[in-house]
Amino acid sequence: MNRLRIKHMTGFHYGGDVTASYNEARMLPVSSDGQLVLFANLEILPISSHHNYVDYWGSRVSSFEILTPHKELSLTATSLVEVRDVQHVDAKLDWDALAEAAERTTSTVEQLKQTARTAPPVEVQDLAREIASSTSDPCEAALAISTALGSAMEYVQGVTAVTSTAAEAWAVRKGVCQDITHLALGALRHVGIPARYVSGYLHPKPDAAIGETVAGESHAWVEWFCGDGWRGFDPTNLIDIGDRHVLVGRGRDYNDVPPLRGVYAGPFGSTLFVKVEITRET
Asked: How is residue 56 annotated by DSSP?
């Protein structure tokens, strides 16, 4: 078990006075299996009124507007979370049984449909079908597919953008966790396995000392449906979800869980800034 303190600072520098901005933030983790949120707070500057709610996908959202002139928007999310390793128990369903189980609930049916970001290129479709046809166990196939795609991609920042699709990332075989997760989602859905996008954080240093603060970043991974529950896997790092992963939100793809999204009235052009610090406390 790890107790992790996360400080996530982000926002925008504008090219002049912004007269109004309307925003949503998804930066605070939620309690779930293997994860207990002990403390979570979001500070917004300039000070504004805001409304908190849980969205359709189960993510905590802070919706706020700033109606006074400002040249910068700054958010600081501070969280303290206890995270435990999750035991992955597969249902051992065959393909027909999984298809039947996936049709029973809206939550699984919705995670079978491709989005513009996850639609896999033909080569990825072929790879997914080849792996799926080699086993009668869909969850075993899901792990093999995610591992194969993660192994085929090189983690490189700056090659893709936040708007990039799985097909665009695959074309250059390079990208970040968002791209690799989109590829895995597209491949799994293509062979009939419900899969969803997960956003959060990963402590980057497994052997960090207690009290040591390290630079982190937002992270993404995949969960797929195994008949009696969902199993998480990190295709970027080729590891199971464990006590270094902190979950913030789930959705169909990145577009459902961006940390910060909004519109503003003012001069054209803004610069995003992001800084994440993670401290292991126990």
From this structure: T
